[in-house]
Fold this protein.
Amino acid sequence: MPSFSLHFLTRVLVWLVVLVVVRVVVVVVSSFGDYVPPNFNSEFLHGREGYFFGLYAWAFYAHIVSGPLALLAGLLLLNPRLRRRWPVFHRWLGRAQVMGVVGVMAPSGLVMAWWAAAGPVATVSFITLSLATAGCLILGWRAAVSRRYALHQRWMERAFVLLCSAVTLRLMVGSALVVDADFLWWDPLWFDPILSWVSWLFPLGIYEAWWRLARLPRPAERPRETS
Ligand code: HEM
């Protein structure tokens, strides 16, 4: 693909991601009214009265606050202009992000995974996702400390893509509801567990492919063939 069109496509995609992430954060925050105090008739809390106390309730409230904050912090941290202009702000926000995600968001996701509404297949997916997200942030932080900035950026981009699973999951569920679900033989029994995996493996695959594509040598840079 010509480098110009790939560059243009990347910019359009970046803006699309920013808009969708901000929109999902607004939607999540605006549903806090259903959670404080807990409304067990609301979509997410329906049927969870039996275990919505103690560890689960703590994890839930920690998760719904730390999740949106992690997404917003991720947008700011990955913005190259902000990073160049305010490197100290980037460093402090980065430290807060690592602490918030590794210390609060990923562990709370891990706890909630045991009670995942979509069952054991989704439980394994969410546990893997929690560990992978925390792992990427720790590796990214270690790379920054040892001044390997290209590697730092790569791990942090991966971490953000994994955080965006919360966004893709909601987009995919929303799309399935808009496209007639019966037409797709949609049954939450198998659709939701599959979605819990697709929501992070698919964006991660796209990111890895894009990263490799963007680094392919341009036609002018390729060595000439000799006959
Ligand atoms: C490491 C990444 C993440 C993992 C492993 C994770 C895990 C989970 C799990 C297991 C649940 C409960 C699902 C169920 O019982 O069916 C959940 C719910 C939730 N998560 Fe996450 N999550 C992650 C990232 C995020 C992010 C970045 C946000 C930010 C918007 C977020 C916001 C929420 C909210 C608001 C709920 C409950 C209410 C709802 O679905 O609207 N999560 N998450």
Q: What stands out?
A: The chain has a mean pLDDT of 92. The two ends are 26 Å apart (CA to CA). The chain is about 75% helix and 0% strand. The longest helix spans residues 3-30.
